[in-house]
Amino acid sequence: MLKSEVEIVTRKRANLVGYSIEASLNDDVEGAIVAGLREKLVSRIAEIPQRVDRSMMLVQVYPDCDWTPDVTYTHIVAVEVNHHPPAAPEGMIVHIVPEGRFLRFLHQGDEGDIDATHAAINEWLDLNGYTDAREYDIERWEELDRLDKADNVIEIYVPIS
Hints:
By secondary structure, the chain is of the alpha+beta class.
């Protein structure tokens, strides 16, 4: 569920290390692709030095086209690290999220219900004049062991100009 608080925040550049895959939303729903990447990253987390904290992020990078659930886009599941340039263990990727201003939304509840929150965010963006197509957005998962709980909170960041 989308919580009502929306903030404009500035985020510093984030140096991320993790996994990336190209897939559509429908592919992810059918194959639990993001959940699989998250589990894979958790299994190798000790190989990533200088993590900023215990959180994990999902960066979704969208192509410049009309979006449907069948459009393929990039899913990056990663952790933030302190060092730049970051070094990635074998088989992992490095992704840099540039410094910028973001709208910060909060999803409360089971992560499995987050698609409804993204739909509500898209509606909020349209109603509030944020009609430009976005290149990407970010989900920040603070406590991985609580993703299926009713009091779980996931931060969602949408870049703005």
